[in-house]
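User: Second chain of the day. Same drill as before.
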Amino acid sequence: MDRGAPRHRLAIVIGVGGAVFVGALTAIQARVNGQLGVALDAALVAALISFGSGLVILLVLAPLLPSGRAGVRVLRSALRERRVPWWMLVGGAAGAFSVATQSFTVAVIGVAMFSVGMVAGQTVHGLVLDRIGYSPAGVSAVTLPRVAGAALVLSAVVVSLTGDAVARAPLWMLVLPFLVGAGVAWQTATNGRLRQAVGSAFAATLVNFIGGTAVLAVAAVWHLATAGAPASAPREPWLYLGGALGVAYIFISAALTPRTGVLLMTLGSVLGMLGASVVLDVVWPPAAPPALWQRALTVALAAGGVVVATVRAGRR
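Assistant: Same format as last time:
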């Protein structure tokens, strides 16, 4: 009897469950950052606050947590010995683009519409990254079940795009989330490979936030120089939680991706993101909310995609 098979299946189930949680955190962060962008009337500044606060949290935790101290040590050693190629250090650029796009678009088109575009980009790019072997889990064959799972998720995207919502949304607001999704799939794989290379999810998360904060700092300085500073800072504490949410889901993604691969990580996060998006858009309705049947069918199709890809992944 092969005792490794049940353990492998359990690892897949735990990994996909974590991916679902990551997706829910992503949707919540999108709404928080979008609302902060509206409150400040400066999306790039809002994105910098979100990413920068996440970096501050990590810098505070680094000396307090054993994993933080160990992560900083191994990262220093890896950089000093040049064991980490430069491309593993730039995943934060995709995170910066994601947070900036949230601040521009979510308050206008809603979390669900943002998630729809992001889902499409993640699904397509995640399948490609797994196939070419960029995933830290290695090369994953393009099997029929994996394609079927991705197709079901894309069909959920098609259902979400029906109705009046698309007609009311500017085209560029629909295109940007798709590019964000492609970037997030690449960021997830890159952070996972960095985590694999240095043996520390904390180190991978720290590198992600340092890079993203640097990119957004340059963009925010340009915005302030051309448009001026925001009139006032919002007082609602929850508007400043974007950084903490980002720390949580980046850390979890970096830890889980070597176990799941990019596609399964993507599909699980899709399910969590779409489910949370439906709830968030009920609480904060967008300009053109989808019908209840449309929301239910979208989540059901995404769930079907996750189930199909996960069940077969345990047998590959």
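The two ends are 17 Å apart (CA to CA).

User: Great, on to the next one.
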